[in-house]
Specification:
Blueprint lengths: L2 H19 L5 H23 L9 H28 L5 H17 L11 H14 L8
Helix pairs in contact: 1-2, 1-4, 2-3, 2-4, 3-4
Length: 141
């Protein structure tokens, strides 16, 4: 297992410990919680769900990965908070606990193994060229 997976798995539990033992509204607590909520659950989810290895290092790919991480983190946070609010059991500690569990599970679960295929548009664009390369039957046959 890579150090990134271990760091993601332990990040939620570290923030939960910080939230439990540091005074409320302290700068370290707010900073640690904000970084965890905006990055870690989404990074664990996008790392797990990615079917192809990340090999592109251009700006667009890095920006896409960052936006995906942020959106997934916010989505998971909203799902947890909404569930806890609707069940009348919301506390910050419970929300962090649920997100820490989700992040750990996603980080420690092996990546999905899928078939690495070209996108559909690339396959469709290559279809006419492949058909043109085949020998055509003669009309007299």
């Amino acid at each position: 297992m890579t150090p990134l997976r271990w760091a993601l798995a332990l990040s939620g539990w570290a923030v939960l410990a910080v939230a439990t033992y540091l005074p409320d509204a302290g700068v370290p607590l707010v900073a640690a919680t904000t970084v965890f909520l905006l990055v870690c659950p989404g990074l664990a989810a996008s790392r797990w769900a990615r079917s192809a290895p990340a090999y592109a290092r251009d700006r667009a790919a890095v920006l896409e990965a960052g936006v995906l991480t942020l959106v997934l983190s916010l989505s998971l946070g909203v799902l947890v908070a909404e569930t806890l609010y609707l069940s009348d059991t919301f506390t910050v500690t419970r929300a962090l606990l649920a997100l820490a569990v989700a992040t750990s599970v996603l980080a420690l679960t092996p990546k999905r193994r899928g078939r690495h295929r070209a996108p559909r548009a690339a396959r469709d664009a290559g279809a006419p060229a492949a058909a043109a390369d085949r020998p055509q039957p003669r009309a007299s046959e």
